[in-house]
C-alpha cells in the first residue's frame, strides 16, 4: 500500500496544484483555472468503467500477474504516457490540448485508483482498514511531495514541460510495484511466460497510445468528438442544461429512495437486480443499510466538499500574494505533506482508539476551522514564509486526519464481493459532487475576493458535521459487517440504536 499509494498520488497534483500554478503564470484567468478542475470528472465518473476492472482481463498482464495487479501495471504505464504528452504542451498557446492531456492523466490515474482501492479492500479486514488507509495515504503523500515540491523545483530550473517529462519517468519506476507486491485474494497463473505477457501488455498500451495521439492531431477523431459535445452543449437552453445538471447530481439519492420504497423492496428480494452494473451496487447498499443509504450517500457527498472546493484556489492565492514557486514547493510539498502524513496517522489512531463515528465528527470540525485559516492568510500584506507554514500546516493535519477516516468509512461500506465497482461508486460520488461545485470556485473568488471565498468554503463543511454527529450518536457504523451478509444493527430487519430511521420493510 505504501508504494501503490505513491504511484497513485503522483499524477493527481499534476492535474490540480501544479497545473493551476503553471496556468496562472501563463496569465490564464482564475475563472478559467477554476473550470479546469472539471477535468477531474474522470475521478468522479470512474464507477462507469470500474466494472471492467472486475470483469475484463488485460492481454498479457492479467494472465501473468492476476487481474488486480495486471490492471494496476497497465494504469500506471498509461498515466506516465499521458504525463509525457503534457510535457509537449504550453497553456499560453493552446489551452484546449492542455485540457485533453489533463483529462488523459486524470483518466489513467482514476483507473489506477480503482485498482488500488479494490486491492486494499480485498486484502484488509474492516478492523485494519483505518490503519491500512493511513499507510496508503502515507505513500500517496510521498507521491504528492514528488509532484509538488519536486515538480515546482524542476519548473524553476527547466520549465513546467520538464516537470511533466521527469515525473512521467518517475511514474514508470512506480510501475514496478505490481511485479512484486502480494495480492492475497488471487493466485498468479504460473503457466504464462512473463516475457510474452509483458510484450502483449505493452503492445496493448501502445495501440491505445497511437489511437489517442492520432485523435489529438488537427482533424483527429478526439478533437472532432470534443467539438461535437461542445456544440451540443452550447445548443441547450441554459435552464434545460441547469435542470439536467441538477438531475444528475440528485440521481444517486433518487435511485436509493426508489429502492427504499415498496417497489424497490420487491426488486431487492428477487436478486436479479444485483447483476446489473452500477444499479446493482446501489441495490446492495440499500439491502445492507436500509433507509440509512440516503444518509450514507449524503455523508459521502459532503464530507470532503469543503476542502475540494477550497483547494482549487489555494495555488492562485499563493501566486497573487507574491510567493515564489520554490517557497510554495517547499512549504506545500515537503513540509505540508509531511504534516499531512502525521494527520493521516492521527486519524487512523483515533479510529482505533475512539471509534469511527467520533473520529468522523472530529475530522469535520477540523476541516471547518482550518479552512478559516486561509481566510486569514488572504488578508496578510507581507508574504512571509511563516504564514504559509502556519496555514498549510494546520490545513494539512486536518486534511490527513479527515482523509484517513473518510477512506476507511467508504472501505467499510464496500461489499468485498464487488469491491472494485462499489468503492469506485462511493469515491466517484464524492469526487463528482465536489468537482461540480469546485468548478465554479474561480468565479466565486473573482466575485467576492479570496477572504470571503474561504469563509464560504468553511461553511460548506457544516452539513458534513451534522451528518457525522448523527451517525455517531446512532451507532450506525458499529453494525456494519465486513461480509456481504447483514448482521444485527442498522440493517434491514433490526431497528437501529436508537431507531432514527425506518428499515426497508417500514419497521
From TrEMBL:
Residue ranges, annotated region (Disordered): 488-507
UniProt xrefs under SUPFAM superfamilies: MFS general substrate transporter
Pfam families: Acatn
Key words of the record: Membrane, Transmembrane, Transmembrane helix, Transport
The organism's place on the tree of life at top rank: Bacteria
Broad class of where this protein is predominantly found: membrane
Gene Ontology cellular component list: membrane
Topological type in the membrane: Multi-pass membrane protein
Subcellular location: Membrane
Annotated GO MF terms: acetyl-CoA transmembrane transporter activity
Coiled-coil residue windows: none
InterPro entries xref list: AcetylCoA_trans_1-like, AmpG_permease/AT-1, MFS_trans_sf
GO biological process: acetyl-CoA transmembrane transport
Transmembrane regions: 30-49, 70-89, 95-117, 138-155, 161-180, 192-214, 240-260, 289-306, 326-349, 361-378, 384-411, 423-444, 450-473
Signal sequence annotation: none
Record's protein name: MFS transporter
Amino acid at each position: 500500500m505504501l508504494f501503490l499509494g505513491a504511484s497513485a498520488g503522483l499524477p493527481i497534483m499534476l492535474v490540480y496544484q501544479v497545473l493551476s500554478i503553471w496556468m496562472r503564470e501563463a496569465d490564464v484567468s482564475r475563472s478559467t483555472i477554476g473550470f479546469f478542475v472539471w477535468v477531474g470528472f474522470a475521478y468522479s465518473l470512474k464507477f462507469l468503467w470500474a466494472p471492467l476492472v472486475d470483469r475484463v482481463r488485460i492481454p498479457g498482464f492479467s494472465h501473468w500477474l492476476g487481474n488486480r495487479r495486471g490492471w494496476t501495471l497497465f494504469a500506471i504505464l498509461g498515466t506516465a504516457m499521458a504525463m509525457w504528452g503534457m510535457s509537449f504542451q504550453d497553456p499560453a498557446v493552446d489551452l484546449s490540448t492542455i485540457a485533453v492531456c489533463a483529462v488523459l492523466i486524470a483518466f489513467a490515474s482514476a483507473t489506477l485508483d480503482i485498482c488500488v482501492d479494490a486491492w486494499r479492500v480485498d486484502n484488509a479486514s474492516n478492523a485494519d482498514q483505518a490503519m491500512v488507509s493511513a499507510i496508503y495515504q502515507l505513500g500517496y503523500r510521498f507521491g504528492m511531495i514528488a509532484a509538488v515540491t519536486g515538480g515546482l523545483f524542476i519548473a524553476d530550473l527547466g520549465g513546467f514541460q520538464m516537470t511533466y517529462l521527469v515525473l512521467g519517468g518517475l511514474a514508470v519506476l512506480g510501475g514496478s510495484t505490481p511485479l512484486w507486491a502480494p495480492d492475497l485474494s488471487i493466485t498468479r497463473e504460473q503457466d504464462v511466460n512473463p516475457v510474452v505477457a509483458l510484450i502483449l501488455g505493452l503492445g496493448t498500451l501502445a495501440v491505445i497510445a497511437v489511437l489517442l495521439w492520432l485523435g489529438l492531431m488537427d482533424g483527429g477523431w478526439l478533437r472532432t468528438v470534443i467539438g461535437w459535445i461542445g456544440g451540443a452543449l452550447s445548443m441547450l437552453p441554459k435552464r434545460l442544461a441547469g435542470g439536467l445538471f441538477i438531475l444528475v447530481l440528485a440521481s444517486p439519492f433518487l435511485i436509493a429512495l426508489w429502492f427504499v420504497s415498496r417497489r424497490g423492496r420487491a426488486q431487492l428480494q428477487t436478486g436479479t437486480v444485483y447483476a446489473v452494473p452500477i444499479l446493482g451496487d446501489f441495490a446492495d447498499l440499500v439491502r445492507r443499510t436500509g433507509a440509512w443509504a440516503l444518509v450514507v450517500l449524503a455523508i459521502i457527498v459532503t464530507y470532503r466538499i469543503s476542502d475540494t472546493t477550497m483547494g482549487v484556489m489555494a495555488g492562485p492565492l499563493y501566486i497573487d500574494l507574491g510567493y515564489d514557486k520554490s517557497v510554495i514547493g517547499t512549504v506545500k510539498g515537503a513540509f505540508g505533506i509531511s504534516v499531512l502524513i502525521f494527520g493521516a496517522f492521527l486519524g487512523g489512531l483515533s479510529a482505533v482508539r475512539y471509534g469511527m463515528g467520533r473520529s468522523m465528527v472530529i475530522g469535520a470540525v477540523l476541516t471547518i476551522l482550518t479552512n478559516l485559516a486561509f481566510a486569514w492568510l488572504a488578508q496578510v500584506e507581507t508574504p512571509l514564509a511563516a504564514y504559509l507554514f502556519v496555514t498549510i500546516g494546520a490545513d494539512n493535519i486536518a486534511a490527513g486526519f479527515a482523509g484517513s477516516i473518510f477512506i476507511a468509512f467508504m472501505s467499510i461500506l464496500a461489499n468485498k464481493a464487488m469491491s472494485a465497482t462499489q468503492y469506485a461508486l462511493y469515491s466517484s460520488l464524492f469526487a463528482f459532487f465536489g468537482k461540480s461545485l469546485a468548478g465554479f470556485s474561480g468565479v466565486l473568488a473573482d466575485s467576492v475576493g479570496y477572504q470571503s471565498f474561504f469563509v464560504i468554503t468553511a461553511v460548506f463543511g457544516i452539513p458534513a458535521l451534522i451528518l457525522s454527529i448523527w451517525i455517531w450518536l446512532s451507532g450506525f457504523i458499529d453494525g456494519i459487517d465486513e461480509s456481504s451478509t447483514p448482521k444485527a444493527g442498522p440493517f434491514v430487519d433490526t431497528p437501529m440504536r436508537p431507531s432514527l430511521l425506518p428499515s426497508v420493510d417500514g419497521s
